[in-house]
Amino acid sequence: MSNTKIVSPKKDMIFMAILSAVVLTMPLWLQPFGAAYPDLMQKFMIFGIFAIGYNILFGLTGYLSFGHAAFLGVGSYTAVWSFKLLSMNVIPALIFGTVLSGLFALAIGFVSLRRSGIYFSILTLAFAQMSYNLAYSVLTPITNGETGLQLEQADPRVLDRMSGIEADASLPTPNLFGIEGIGYSGFYICAALMLISFFIYLRIFRSPFGLKLRAIKSNQNRMGYTGFSTRPYLMTAFVISGMYAGLAGSLLAVTDPLAGAERMQWTASGEVVLITILGGVGTLIGPLLGAGIIKYFENIFSAFNDTVLLNAFSFLPDWLAHPIASVVGLFVGEGWHLTLGLVFMLIVIFLPGGIMEGISRLSRLLFKREKTEPKSDGHENKEKEQTSAGEV
Amino acid sequence: MDAIFLQILNGLDKGGAYALIALGLTLVFGTLGVVNFAHGAIFMMGAFCAVTLEKLLTLSVKVKDESVTFFDAYKETPYLELWFGDTGTAIIDWSVPLSIILAVPVMLLIGIVMERSLIRYFYKRPHAEQILVTFGLAIVLQELVKAAFGANPIPQGAPDIVSGSAAVGAIFGLGEAVVYPWWRLIYLAFSLITIGLVFSFLHFTTYGMVVRAGMADRETVELLGINIERRFTIVFGIAAVVAGLAGVMYTPVLPPDYHLGMDFLVLSFVVVVVGGMGSLPGAVAAGFLLGILQSFSSMTEVKDIFPGIDQIIIYLVAVVILLTRPRGLLGRRGVMES
Amino acid sequence: MSETKLIGNVSRRTILKGSAATTGAALIGGTFPMHFIKNAHAQTFRGDPGSASSVKLGFNVPQTGPYADEGADELRAYQLAVKHINGEGDGGMLNTMKPLELKGNGILGKKVEFVTGDTQTKSDAARASAKRMIEKDNVAMVTGGSSSGVAIAVQGLCQEMGVIFMAGLTHSNDTTGKDKKRYGFRHFFNAYMSGQAIAPVLLDEYGNERRAYHLTADYTWGWTQEESIKAATENIGWETVNTVRTPVGAGDFSQYITPVLNSGADVLILNHYGKDMVNSLTQAVQFGLRDKQVNGKNFEIVVPLYSRLMAQGAGEAAKGILGTTNWHWSLTDAGSQAFVKSFGQEYGFPPSQAAHTCYVQTLLYANACEMAGTFAPWEVIKQLEGFEFDGAGNGPTLYRAEDHQCFKDVLVVRGKENPQSNFDLLEVVKNVPRAQVEYPADMFGGELGPYQV
C-alpha cells in the first residue's frame, strides 16, 4: 500500500457522488440479477458497513481479528433491548448499539492488543467464542439463547408510552420517525447510513491517522523507533472498527428485530474476513464488493433447486438437460457451500488482492494497452473477473 | 476420588485427540510456515477412510424383504460372511483397526498431493492468504464428502473384544466399580505411541534431524546442498497421516460426519497457539492440559460455583496463558509476529 | 488507489447527468413496492397470487449443516405434496384424508409452484431465506425447519409479515406455547406430549422405583424437554438424581458420562437431538452403562425424542432404547400406507417423521385455502383453527384453535434388536391415544396475536 497518493477532496466528493448514485439505484439495476428485494439489499448495505469497518483494522494495520462477530452481536442485542425498553425509534437503538459495541471493543482490544500476529487473532477469537457460548446458554435471560431475542407485545417501551404511542394489536415495527425499518424504506435507511459510514471511512483512509495505521502495518518496530507509541493508534482503530460492527449489528436489528446468538459465532467472524479478502484488503471499495458477492451467494445460489435448474435448461433436449442440470446442481442449492469454497480458492490463488486487483488488472488491460504491455497473467483471469464483478 | 480419577482419564483421552491433531498442525507450521486451515478436513478424511473400508468390507448380497411392498427394503449379507463364514465376520468386526492399513498410504498420498499442487505455492504468501485458501479447500473437501456420504453421522463399531470396559479401578486400588472403556484406553495408548514415534523420527533419525535443522534455519541447510523442500513435502505427508490416523481411531468414539473437521478446527488452533506456534512439545502439552481442564470444568461441583464454565474453559485458558506467557507455553520468539 | 484513477476518465458533466437520471429512477423504484405496505387496503395481502395461474409456496429447510439429511427428506416430502395437490402421481393422502376439499387441480384452481431455501439451522439465515421467499418470490405460505429455535424465529417473522407459517420438525413446548403466533401452525408433537406418552411405558417396563439422571443440551429446547420429562417421570414415582447441562456440539461427552456411573442413578435420560444425541448415546453405551446393574436393576437409557435418521447414526447403540416419535413408516393405517407407498415409489426408501409432518402440513394448508375459497391468510387461519381431520397417519387429529397445536396419537418406539431390513430400525411399542397427551391450552402461556397485521 505504498502507492498512497494525495487525492484531492474534490475527487473524493465525485467518488462519493458516484457511489451514492450506484447504491441508491440498486433496486433498479439489481433487478436482472434477481437480487432487488429489500432484505438482500439491506444485507448488502449492512455487511458492507461491517466489512469497511473491519477493513479499517485489518486493511490498514494488518491486525487480523477473528472476533469481530462479537461486536456485531452486541450491537444487535443492544438495539433489540433498546426497542424493548425505550422506543421503537431506531435512533436510540443505533446510538446505544454503536456505543456499547465500542465499549466492548475497548475492553477486548485493551487485552488483545497486548499481543500481535496470530496471538492477537486467537485472543480475539477466544473472546468472541466465549461471548457466543455464553449467549447461547447461560446468558439466555439476556439473549433468549437459541431462539434469539425478540420483541413482545408487553415490552415496556418507556419513551413510546410516554409520548403516547401505544402499539396496536400487531407487533410494532422499528421506525425512523414513522419511516419503517423493513422493506424498501429500510433499505434506504441502511443505504444512507452506509454512505455516511463510508464517507467517514474515506476520511480516515486519507487522514494522517490512516497513514500512521498503514505505517504500523508496514513496520511496527520502525514506527516505535521513530518515537511513536503505536498502541493508542491500534486501540483507536480497533474501537472504530468495533463501532462499525456495532452499527451493522444494530441495523440488522432495525431491519429485522431479532438477535440470534449465532451472529457471534467464529464462522460469522470468519465471514467478514472472507468478505474483506475477497473484495480486496486495504482497498477502499473492495469490502463492499466482497459483502455483495458473499451475500448474493448465500441467498440466491442456495435457492436454486432441481426444478429451477431444469427450467433454466429447458431449451436443451431432455436427454441433455437432465445431466447438465444434475451436474450444475452439485454447485448450487444444497451444494452452494462447494461453490463458495471453490471461489475462495480461485480468488486467492489467482487474485491475491481480491476482486479489486482483478478490476485494476482489467482496467490496465483496457486503458493502458498502448502505453505498456499488460502483464500476461492478466489474461487468464479476465473472464472470471468479469462475471464476479457482474454479480455485485 | 473415583470421580476425579475418571475425569483425569477423560481428560487424557480427550487430550490425546487434541494433541494428535495439533501435532500435525504445528509440524506443518514449523516446517513450511503454512497455517493450514484444512488440517481439520484431513482429520475428517481419515475418519472417512474407516467409513470407506467398512463400506467395502460390507459389500453385500441384498435379499429383498418381501413384507415391505412400497419400496426396496432388503436385508444385507456381506459377501465376506458368505465366502469366509466366521472369518469374514471377524474381518468386518475389525474394520476400524484394519482401516489403519488403508489410511496410511491414502493419507500420505492426499498430504503429498495437497502440498505439491497447492500448499507449496503459498509458502511465501501472507498468513491471511494461506488461511483463506486452505479454508476454501477445507470447505471443498467436506462438501465432496457430504455429496458422497450424506450429512448424517455413520456409526463405526470397535471390535467386539474391546467394546467392553476395563476394570482400571482395581489396578489403581480404587475398587471394582471404577471402569473405563477399552477402546478409549487404546486410543490413549495409540496417541502416546504416535506422538512418541513422531518425536523419535525427528530426534533420532538423520532425516528427522535435517528436518529440524531446516525448521530452525532453512537457508543454512539449503546452502549445505540438501533439498529441504522435498523433505518438507514428506513432513506434510506425515502430518496428514498423523491427523488421518487420529481420525480413523476416533470413529468408534464419535460417529463421523462430513462436518467433523470444522468441529475440531478452532479447537486445534487454540491448542497449537496455547502450546506456542511451531513448538511440538508445546502442542502436545497444551493438548493434554486443555483436555484435562475441560474434563474438570464440566464436573457438577465446579459448575455450581462457575455456571457455564465448561462452555468457555478452553478459551479462558487460552486468554490467561497468552497474557501471562506471550508466546504460549513453549513458543519461540519471532514466530508469526512480523 | 485505482478507483479514483478511473474516475478521472469520466467528465464531471456526464456524472451529474447520469446521477440525476438514476436518482429519479430510484424514486420511482422506491414507490413500486408501496402496495406491500401493511393495511394499505383491507383486501390486499402478501403472497396474493392475484390473477396468476399459479401460487407459490416457500420450503425453507436446512440444506447445509448437521440436519442437512433431514432437510433433504423434508424437501422430498414437499415436492411429493405439491405433485399430489397438482393432481400428478397417485394422489397419496389425498385419497385418505377426511374431510378434504382438494380436487387434484392445485389450490383454488391455481397450479402450485414452490421455491426452496437453506436455513443452515440458524435463526438469522432462516429468517433471511424466508424474507427472500416473501419479498422476492411472493409466496403465499412458508413452511419447514428442523429445529425449534429456527421455527420460532421464522414463525415470528411470518407473523410480522402476515404470511402463514406451517412449522416442520419442531418439538419445543414454546413453539405453540409462550412463542405461539396467530400465523404459525404446528402439526408435530412437543416435549410435553413426549413426556406424557412415554411415562406409562417407562412405568410398565422399568417399574416405579427408579432414579433418573438427565443430560440436557444447554439451550431452550433441551430445557423444555428436561422440564417435561422430569415432571412426567416424577409423576410415576421416579426420583431425579441430577440434571446436567451439556454444551451444544460438545462432541465428546465422556466428562459428563463418567459421573453418571457412580451417581446411584439407574436410568440415564438424554435430552439431546441430532448429532449431540448420536454422540452421547454412542458414548454412553461405550461406557458400559447398559451392561450395568444398579440398585439391583438393569441400567437403562432413554432418549425422549427419537428419529429413524438418528437411530441410523447411532447404529448398534440405539438397539433397545426407548423414545417417542411423531410417526413411523411401519404404521398400517390407510393414510400412512398411502403416503409411504407414494414416497417409496418416488424415491425408493421410506419417509422420515420429518418428511411426514411436512407433507401433511402442506396438504392441510392447501385444503384450508380450498375451504376458505381464498388465499387471504386471515380466512385460511380461521379454517385451520379447530380443524378436525383423519386419515393423515396419526388417527383423528385436531388443530386446536387456542394454540395452533395438533393433537393426535403419539408413538412410543424402541430401537429394534433384530432388524429385518436396512430401514427397519424402530419398532412401535405403543400407540399412545391422543386423550393421554392433551393438556389445557393456557398451560404454556403466550399470545397468538391478531388475525390481520
Automatic annotation (TrEMBL), chain A:
State the annotated membrane topology for this chain: Multi-pass membrane protein
Keywords from the named record = Cell membrane, Membrane, Transmembrane, Transmembrane helix
Instruction: Give yes or no: UniProt keyword ATP-binding.
Output: no
**Region ranges (Disordered):** 372-392
**What CDD domains does the database record attribute to this sequence?**
TM_PBP1_LivM_like
- Which InterPro entries does the entry mention? ABC_transp_permease, LivM-like
Q: Does the keyword Repeat apply?
A: no
One Pfam family linked to the record: BPD_transp_2
Which GO cellular component terms are attached?
Answer: plasma membrane
Sequence ranges of Basic and acidic residues compositional bias: 372-386
Give one GO term, molecular function aspect: branched-chain amino acid transmembrane transporter activity
The record lists the membrane-crossing segments as 13-32, 44-66, 86-111, 118-139, 182-204, 232-252, 272-297, 309-332, 338-359
Instruction: Tell me the compartments it is located in.
Output: Cell membrane
Q: What is this protein called?
A: ABC transporter permease
Native species of this protein?
A: Thalassospira profundimaris
From TrEMBL, chain B:
Q: Does the keyword Transmembrane apply?
A: yes
Q: Does the keyword NADP apply?
A: no
Membrane-spanning segments:
15-35, 42-61, 91-110, 161-180, 187-211, 231-252, 264-293, 305-323
Single GO biological process annotation from the record: amino acid transport
Pfam family of the protein (one): BPD_transp_2
Entry superkingdom: Bacteria
Keyword annotations from UniProtKB, A to Z: Amino-acid transport, Cell membrane, Membrane, Transmembrane, Transmembrane helix, Transport
Q: Which CDD domains match?
A: TM_PBP1_LivH_like
Q: What is its main location?
A: membrane
Q: Name one GO molecular function term.
A: transmembrane transporter activity
Q: Which family does it belong to?
A: Belongs to the binding-protein-dependent transport system permease family. LivHM subfamily.
PANTHER family (UniProt xref): ABC TRANSPORTER ATP-BINDING PROTEIN (PTHR11795:SF442), BRANCHED-CHAIN AMINO ACID TRANSPORT SYSTEM PERMEASE PROTEIN LIVH (PTHR11795)
What is the recorded name of this protein? Answer: ABC transporter permease
Q: What is the lineage of its organism?
A: Bacteria, Pseudomonadati, Pseudomonadota, Alphaproteobacteria, Rhodospirillales
TrEMBL record, chain C:
Q: Which domain of life is it from?
A: Bacteria
Which parts of the sequence belong to the Leucine-binding protein domain?
A: 54-416
What biological processes does GO assign it?
Answer: amino acid transport
User: Entry's Pfam families?
Assistant: Peripla_BP_6, TAT_signal
Assigned keywords, A-Z? Amino-acid transport, Signal, Transport
Its family remark reads: Belongs to the leucine-binding protein family.
What is the protein name given in its UniProt record? Branched-chain amino acid ABC transporter substrate-binding protein
Taxonomic source organism = Thalassospira profundimaris
